[in-house]
Amino acid sequence: MADSPWAALSSVERDLMVSASEAWGILAYATSGKDEDGHAVDLPSIVLGLVDHGWAHVHRIERAPDGQAGAAYGPPIPRAEIPEVLKDPAIWDDPDDPDWIGAVTLSATETWRALDRQHGYTAE
Length: 124
Hints:
Layout: H1 5-8, H2 11-21, H3 27-30, H4 43-52, E1 56-63, E2 71-73, H5 82-87, E3 104-108, H6 110-119
Antiparallel strand pairs: 1-2, 1-3
Helix pairs in contact: 2-4
């Protein structure tokens, strides 16, 4: 599996893709923002790389559309708008709203899910 896309991911990219593959996970909790050696990384660039590979969508969490308590993923943020959204340092911090309304999250694309089914990446 050394030549698989999963094996080529950094630890931060793996953390983000595991978060994107789970039912819920916001960027503030997905990763420490440090690489394997403890150095800070450029998280917005890493997220954009995952988007550009077609592996992840970026969303904001919104109130549940049916008016019930809870939250739901908003629509995917268009690629052109993602850099501006990710520049906001608040998205990388614990949100004030305990329901995470307005927080930014990732979801895995069908392309990633197909790779995961084929290779079992998130099971490692």
